[in-house]
Amino acid sequence: MGDYTESFRRSLEDPAGFWADAAEGIAWDTRWDKVLDDSDAPYYRWFTGGRLNTAYNCLDRHVDGGRADQLALIWDSPVTGQLQKYTYRELRDAVARFAGVLQARGVGHGDRVIVYMPMIPEAAIAMLACARLGAVHSVVFGGFAGHELAKRFNDAKPKAMVTASCGIEPGRTVEYKPLYEHALKEAQHVPDTVIVKQRDTHRCALESGRDLDWDAAMADAAPADCVTVAATDPLYILYTSGTTGAPKGIVRDNGGHAVALNWTMKAVYNLDPGDVWWTASDVGWVVGHSYIVYGPLLHGNTTVMFEGKPVGTPDAGAFWRVIRDHGVVSLFTAPTAFRAIRQQDPDGQRIGDYAIPQFRTLFLAGERCDPDTLYWAQNKLDVPVIDHWWQTETGWAIAANPMGIEPFPVKAGSPTAPMPGWNVRVIDSEGREMPRGEIGSIVCKLPLPPGSLPTLWQARERYHQAYLEAFPGCYRTGDAGYFDEDGYLFVMGRTDDVINVAGHRLSTGAVEEVLAEHPDVAECAVVGVRDDLKGQLPVGLVVLAAGVDRPHAEIQKECVQRVRDEIGPVAAFRHVAVVSRLPKTRSGKILRATMRKMADGEQIEVPPTIDDPAILDEVRQSLQDLGFKI
Ligand code: COA
Ligand code: AMP
Fold it and tell me: What would the CATH number be for the domain defined by 502-625?
């Protein structure tokens, strides 16, 4: 245990010294020239001149350092009834072999590889194999449809794609081939190699010349060595929702990422090497990148990968079963998973069915943890429940309760305090600091710590405009919140049109783009409406084109189907209201912020510039008619 205040102070006053110490936890091929390179400020870089390999740090060094026979990865799949375990040696060998497969197909340093896969070990193996070669992976969540995949092909210009024949969702098999064929047809840039892991549940036809069978390719492959890369070289691109339909390609570097994540495993999560750790998320999200794959492996932990849901696979006891079976000491998931469990097992009776004495901490992130869920989890599990706040962009927690440095008393509704490296400020629109207790925009003073995004993939202008322009010298988080009298941070919601559905980030703009393409829709807006289970749900408000007299129900159904086909089931888009007009200012601007507040159940002041105040009443009525309690 250490002293948070001292760590925090040092990280801001002497960032180079602080992170140089943390960098000793990583094996470097060449040590850095500069820890913090400010020569191109405000575009800061970490560990310039340093060289390393991230996969080596995740695997080989542990094999060489005495962990060869320790479990590295446990795959538990209640949806298939399968269980598979890899020691560090076995995982290293599988990764080296798959790196050989990629290399034989011409993938090398700097090339992009799309990984579009369900939660199977091959997804982690593919990611690590890219890292081994110095190639750049871009994982696309399996719940996205072909059109979203095509956008990522066009932006990342991948040389190869690694995929699987199917994913398994409760009650249905998700065939990947129709989805990626759609993307391959739609995109201007497509990968020339597709490597497919055939699963027993469903096998798909392979296209000769283009497609490779994972198992066959692995059987023939020669293992590939680790390629040393610059600390500042990209490790991966992860696309996340911005306010428009074009996703943002968040870039993660190799050096800063390895240093920061390895450090967090103890400082934030209080894990020691060898501990069994489980992140119940998906490798398609940043939480999965950082804490299913990279963080725990960098740190020599055993990571659990779970192909299932908190409920229905087979029941609300699934989490406790996995924690017991594998000796999990700490779990990281999203609050929505606990709301789902609580809905089905309100008294937490199933927890008692499993002996889990080793279980010591529950970590939650992805959305604000509502106090009700926090109290329920605390009471039922009798362990500390730690909310922490971060973003795809930041790669690790901006604010958390530093369990391995100095745990603080938990305050419901707050992710506690800024972590070392994060100079968090709450400001008004003019950049003035807000008094304690008053809500404002949350920004972080530059430089951001290692592991956070250095830029957007081949879009430095967009990076600047999205994050740095609004408040010079600061990174704009896009979240609003406040510090209380004790210095606890409260993060209350977004300041833009990004919504949070079951811990997944979604752009209302992307859904609007799809709705607007419906021939009967003249105008539309999408708002996130408060939902007890998923936090928010997207709701479409559409104005029909003049002269359209088809039944509204038909048009609504088509709208829902279009979003499912274009964006994917993960959008959880089921609600559309037909309205006569959208609320606008007299100059024609749609009053999004006002609708957003209304949908959140907040009191709204009718803006004086509104064109016709009655439209707001119509929108409210439509949302209530859809069953929302606002
Ligand atoms: N591939 C294909 N489809 C997927 C998918 C995937 N990988 N993941 C989800 N989907 C589908 C679901 O089947 C569902 O489809 P449906 O409309 O046919 O029912 C739809 O996308 C919405 O999924 P989701 O929002 O996950 O809802 P759900 O009802 O299936 O499950 C929870 C709700 C709360 C149980 C689930 O969201 C959950 O476990 N979330 C917490 C963990 C988490 O992943 N957090 C993310 C960041 S930490
Ligand atoms: P993502 O990039 O998908 O991880 O989503 C990041 C966004 O989710 C943040 O900008 C917040 O709006 C929200 N978020 C994540 N974790 C929390 C949390 N612990 N408290 C409040 N909001 C959160």
Answer: 3.30.300.30
| 309 within ligand 1 shell (Cβ under 6 A) | yes
Does the beta carbon of 531 sit less than 6 angstroms from any atom of ligand 1?
no
- Three-state SS for 250-306 is EEEECHHHHHHHHHHHHHCCCCCCCCEEEECCCCCCHHHHHHHHHHHHHCCCEEEEE
pLDDT, residue 79, reads 97
Q: 82 vs 36, 79, 174, 305, CA distance in Å?
A: 45, 8, 18, 12
Domain 4-308+388-481 has CATH 3.40.50.12780: yes
Rounded Cα distance between 151 and 147, Å, is: 6
Residue burial 150-175, b: 16+ Cβ < 10 Å; e: rest: bbbbebbbbbbbbbbbbbbbeeeebe
Domain ranges of the chain: 4-308+388-481, 502-625
First to last CA, the chain: 46
The whole-angstrom separation of Cα 118 and Cα 284 is 9
**Ligand 1 atom 23: residue of nearest CA:** 570
Atom of ligand 1 nearest to the CA of 284: 7
Tokens 């993660």 correspond to 252
Cα distance between residue 112 and residue 126, in whole Å: 12
Among protein residues, the one with the nearest Cα to ligand 1's atom 24 is: 570
Q: How confident is the model at residue 125 (pLDDT cuts 50, 70, 90)?
A: very high
Q: Rounded CA gap, 152 and 345, in Å?
A: 39
Q: How confident is the model at residue 243 (pLDDT cuts 50, 70, 90)?
A: confident
Q: Is the CB of 569 under 6 A from ligand 1?
A: yes
Q: Which residues line ligand 2 (CB under 6 A)?
A: 240, 286, 365-368, 387-389, 391-392, 415, 478-479, 491, 494, 500, 505
- Residue 448 DSSP class: P
Please give the pLDDT value at position 1: 54
